[in-house]
Request: fold
Amino acid sequence: MAKDVINFVRLYFIPVLVLVSQVNGERRPNTVSMELGQEKLQDPDTIQILDPPEVLSHGMWLIVEYRCSRDRIIGLEVTGSIEKLKPGQNAERKLFRKAWKCNHENRNIKRKRVKLKLPDSVAFRQDLFNSRITFVNSPKLKAWNLDPIWWPSCRKYHNAFWRATVKVSYDMQLPSPHARLSKGGFNSCPKWPLHILAEVQVKKIEICRKEPEYVHTVTFPVAINGLSYGVVRKFPKYTNTLLENNRKRTFDKPIFTLSMWMYILDYCKFSNTGLCGLTYHVNWNSTFLSPLVFVNRKGQLHIQMSKENRETLAAVTDLKVPRRQWFRLVLGFSRNFWKLTITQGEHFNETTETSYRVPGTTYLDDTEGLFVFGAFDATPSFKGYIGQATYYRNRLLQPHEIPLPSPYHAMFELDLSRRTSKCEGFQEWVYSRSAYYVQQVKSARLAELCHTYFFELWRSIMQKAYGEDFTSRCPKFGEPKSKQYGYLDRLIKRSIHKKMFPSQKQIGEKLYNKAVKYIELGFNHVRRAIPLLKQASCYDNHDAMYMLATLLNNGVKVKADEPQAQAYLMKGCLEKHRLCCLALAHKHRYGLDGVPQDLEQSFVYYKFVADTVRVDKETHKETDVLTESVRLTDEDQLREQTDEDGDVFQWLKHQASNGVFSAQQHIARVLFWGSQGMKRNMAAATEYFRLGAESQDPQAMYDYGIILLKGQGIKKNKTEGLQHIQASADKKNPSALNALGWYAHNFDKNMTAAIYYFEKAFRGGNADAAYNLGLFHLHGEYPGKPPNSDIALDYFNFAATRSQIDAGVFVSYLNMKGTFLRSREVYVAIEWARFIAEKNPELGFVLRKGLTAFRNDERHVALLYYLMAADAGIEAGSFNLAWLCEENQDGIASSIEKECQWRQYNITTQREKQFVDPYALIKMGDYYWYGCGGKRDPRKAADMYTQAAQKKDPHAIFNLGLMVEEGEKIHPSVWKSLYIPKQDQSNNYTLLSTIYRKCRDSPKSEAYLPCSMALYRVQFLEMWDKHRDILQVVSFILSGVVTVLSLRHIVQSLRGNRRPVDLDIL
Reply:
């Protein structure tokens, strides 16, 4: 029985793993095993490889040393894991095997030299003679001493190493593909035909693209406003198998280096927890991953890492990050040790550092989730700028190994410190000047006259010359200042003498309004306005910042200065100015004005403005208007614009007073939102809503009930408001049903009733109900169901496509971060955020100012405001600006340094097709067809004309016909998109006839005459080509007949003139 147990152990022995690679310079095996009980034998079985190499290469000799106590099979093999095409599938394969017999009669130690022969795909590089190469992971060199009874089975199933009880294994490396030899022995000097063939073949071989082991996460400065906004990145996996496998092996022993340049104004102003984001790693479900770097209110850094089970390990540093200066933060991490280094100072020569060893192991998969620079979700951020950020993957770098950016980098071009000091100096001047006038007023009460600086200077000179006392109790004003401060000086003096000194905000507003008046007088006054705008900017007037940025960026009567314009935009956006943020987003969206194209960075700004739209629209301001895209070429839209004295408004008012329900509803909405050229008038709108509700119309009752419930334009009355909403709901109005659900959820706290009303309203197609249900599923508030962002996204998509603003914001948000089932869609997120952001009332106000100026025939003023709208990226602003520059009335386009016609038309054509006007497409088609940019491009011209023709524009169809007449070959896909049958494409005449018929039959009446004439001309030419001979004979005969008749007429005329004339002899 004991013998059987021993045999069982022998046959199923489990090897012992020894994780020692090298001791005292001697290379040791990773796996060693021996047969149980052999330690008692005098000559036990052994096996080893003498001096095993670190790198295996084809053709090398290996020495195996072994001893056999019985007859044995000795084997040597090389194995490796070959990665399949499908990710995650690895299979160990035999790359080499050599086996031989060992006789037990000679129990002495034996040695055998074995030549290593690897497969061609592993041994050689890729060239003419070896078209395929294989990447091998974790190669191992193994030797084994096997009982012969197992050899037939092991030879078939390749499991000799597993069956052997005496064996040894070594971890090896194989040469990288580019370091391998060429097959065929052509490493010396091959004959030239073979050399040429090899070179040709190499050019056909696919070469892995270069993959950097770093990610430039932020390359251009980004403004971080202290709220939950930041740059969101997702790191890709390596396409190179070796790099990717190496990355996977370091999940539980991560190595990385993070370098960030920042300019912090406030550490953590808006956080309830006292922590604000600098950068962190987060999963799609908002779970924090490794690493996380937060800053607290004291400026100390909170650094956190995570384990594989999501347990977090954190530490707080003693050192503080500086404020109001650029500094570099370098975080180096290796396994469980991190080191933080901060570099600052005027010349970045001041360095402070700290380090910490995290207890236990940490875990990091940098392709999981998202990396955030700033903040995202509900986490607030610091307030300031991120100038540059780079993440080095699987590399631990010292700070001196990371080069400093160029002094001409965009973050240094912003010149933040100098700009701040200049504003501080200006504000000190205002303070001292104010003190002077205050003292002057006090001195005047003491009947003492105070004099200017120059009078006081003359007085001191006279005192030195004559020794008389010319002293005065009047304070000296200080050094004389530039005449650019003249208006402000008069403003301060006038205000103090009236005892009404304005606040800083009022000073900024007055300076801005004065600058606007200068510009509205004409562009020749821009140079007078710019100093006032700069002064207003120092007092945080954000409208002044944006107007100043627009003037400097486009070079309106001044030299264009893109870096300075960018600085004012970033400062305004930092203070949450909507237009400044939209302008920054627009530049990053298309890569304009020296700003690199970066969709994820544009999302930072679009998302902020989109989040403010609903609140801004519901916050009543007299200056707020509805954002309307009115094109100056659309006469119908222009006729609809009105004012309180306009004919359109007066007619609507007359109809409404006579009880016409449609007029009451129309005028109520016009006044409520401030559309069609009208100002917002909530009180008047409420009265018209009340008149509509009296008609018992369900929608009118709902509108009036909501106004009463919220107290917009009227005193809040919940009871009466709910009565109107309930009456509307009784008539099955989906909007009213949703309102009842909203009230049940927010006031009655009755979730069952809320769900009932929301579901019923949703079945009726109500977008608000879909949005509310989406929120319940997103936050896990739907009874009996867990949180589900995918179901929520479906509801949000339904609501957003029906113009529900908040739903559009959530569609953008969820597409940016991704959900459990859906990967992130950056483009979709950007477009939804932009679509919602462009509904902000501040943008509508600028468009309204431009339209009003145009209707008043103030072209230069209209150009200014449309220039501001175009810089913010609104399509109607770009279109109208391009059209004004094209018209160039009074030469106003010459006032702008940058080209404004083709640039703006081109920008409008980059938008989604449904937003692009055919006129812009036709203009860009003309640009490419006539070569306005210096080079003709008929293919692009045809594409632009085709897009316009698909919008049923006859001019575009006519232009395509002209291109065909000019002999231009147009791709058949163009005619297919215009639904022109193939039989009509058989020749140019049938094609042109079809094209001009489409043009003639267009709904636009102005196209009938030119298209008809072109059609007749083509038909005549076709008839001429078909019946050329007959027409030539007929034309010859007709010409002859006409000639004969003409000669006859001439002859008869001459004969008539020769008759004698009767003379009167009397």
Q: What stands out?
A: The longest strand covers residues 90-102. DSSP finds 39 helices and 24 strands in the chain. The mean pLDDT is 83. The two ends are 178 Å apart (CA to CA).
